[in-house]
Amino acid sequence: MKNLYGILSLSIFVSCTNQVKEKPIEGKVEREQVTVVTKVPGKIAKLLVEEGDFVHAGDTLAILSIPEVDAKEEQAKGALQSADAQYNMAVKGATKGQLVQLQAKVDGLKEQYEFAKKSIGRLDALLQDSLIPQQKYDETYAKYQGAKNQYLAAQAELAEARGGARQEQQIMALGQKERALGAVSEVNVAAQEKYVIAPQDMSVETINLKVGELAMAGYPIINGFLDRSTYFRFTLPENKMGKLQKGEAVEVEIPYLNHKKVKAKVISIKALNSYASIASAYPDFDPQQAVFELKIVPEDVAGSKDLLTKTLVVLHAN
Q1: Which domain of life, per UniProt (predicted)?
Q2: Which end of the chain has fewer surrounding CB within 10 Å, N or C?
Q3: In whole angstroms, what is the distance from residue 21 CA to residue 36 CA?
């Protein structure tokens, strides 16, 4: 009799075991995230958004106070003015007053040269008639050559003053000017960084700093979700992949919305590197199996934008 009860109990246990339903394929609602960071350090002067706000690409999210940039801007502008003046002086040459002085110098030396030229002409005739000694002629001729060379040198000096500095000096001055222009442009770029701009249409999830707090370069000020980026993430072991393939149409159930079902499509399947990356709350498969991540996108993207992130969903494959 005891053996009969044992057999019946075993039969009932086996029957109940066979009737255990297979665990559904569970996943999570996810959205593509974006992090807005600073490029230059500064204090938060204003926050123009709040958590939960929806912003468009190009909207100003926050304004930083960067006094160092203002100081560098004044320095860069002063350096540019100095370099610009140096370049103009190298190109234009001497001032109007300097040109007047040089012209007067040239005119005076011209008079001396012409006088010396006339003098040597007269002495040349007297020397031919032996009316003056050779020494007297040679002294006058030397003075003539000196006056001539001084006159030619003054002419060259005037021409150089009118034509500007030599080409190498102009190139050097131009290089200094371009360097100063680059410094001004760099400061202007840094000044624009005081405005923290939304890179894309996004919903603000978290704001990590308050007004008055310091944000270092590269600090994530705001985290958000990209608009129209809702998708479903599932992690499956290799023995449950079955016929799931990229491009396959599936149905996803959303329990918290009274088990609402939405049509979706598998857009990517990739192997995961670690067991800890799974999305299922209570995995019940062999850790030795390879684990794959399925990214499934709803067909009605606009209608799925209000789904709560990280909520549970269930996959129903065809």
Answers
A1: Bacteria
A2: N
A3: 46
